[in-house]
Design a protein that fits this description.
By secondary structure, the protein is mostly helical. It contains four helices and no strands. The longest helix has 39 residues.
Amino acid sequence: MSEGLAQQLRGNLEAQRDCAQRLLGLLQEERTALIASDVGRLETITRTKAEAAGLMQTLGQALQQLRGAASIERLLASLREHAPAALWRELLGLAAQCQRANDDNAVLLGTREAQLKQTLRAFRPPESPELYGRSGYAALGLPARDFGSA
């Protein structure tokens, strides 16, 4: 594998590591904002998180292109020679931390959603239907229509 390709591989992995560290920090900020019910901060974090995820996707595509420029065996050999195993392990560890943080935030969101639904039910008159479902629309309760076929 050429030295240039090896440098590109190392640079890509370092950029992915840096992006994963940024995403982990954003997920931790998101957790704090969720606990504090800081909607304005959540909006900002969501935009920033989407940008970071887009960058990670771009880096992943670039890694796929590097893979296409060399056989997988040569790419893995270059990874062992030019990108220290510690860098690869660090990237994998960060990915696992991001997954756990994201899962934890999903639990917080689910809990908050359940609390809000319970609060709304408390204010709704007895026997009245829920006005809005998850999609934002009320189910009409009408049977499905059969459409003719030609």
